[in-house]
Amino acid sequence: MIARHDRQRGFTLIELGVVVAIIGVLAALLVSVSGRTYGANATSMSTELATTLNYARTRALSTRKIHLVAIHFEMGTPEINVWQAATSGMAMSNFVPGTAAFVQRLRIPKGVSLFGAEVTARPAGQTPAQSTARYDIYFLPDGSATASTIYVTDTSQTRNHRVLVYHATGSSYARQAW
Questions:
Q1: d(Cα 140, Cα 132) in Å, to the nearest integer?
Q2: pLDDT tens per residue across span 36-46
Q3: Does pTM top 0.70 for this prediction?
Q4: CA nearest 67: which of 144, 14, 132, 8?
Q5: Domains within the chain, CATH numbers bracketed
């Protein structure tokens, strides 16, 4: 009797189809993950900004020193810096820029835009003027602050948020819409 060896050569059409389907699913996952930046939207940024402002207020209360939150619109990528006065007390003369201590930096991610900031609060729905210069918010040791509204949006301006800083309490809150 002659032994016959049936060797299978190559792949079947079903095996090739399964491999192509797996590669297609992996490629789709890779494209969807790399095309999205996590956490970089106007909603999360306005919440993070309100948290940073409340942090500066809390530090001013606990250290009894004036804190400055400087919003830099004039930079290519806007950023927010928190500074602490070198000496304690309520007098604005205690805050000398050259002697202030750096506390924290908050960088604005791609996909989010700081549109503007102003001292007044506009009624909801009105579009504010766009800021191009530095804007300062002072938090005093008694809890008060420079009353401010900071406008945050995404790059397509479809999600608009504002962060309010109240003068008497220094509290900061993020709100939807302008």
A1: 26
A2: 455 578 888 99
A3: yes
A4: 144
A5: 43-176 (3.55.40.10)
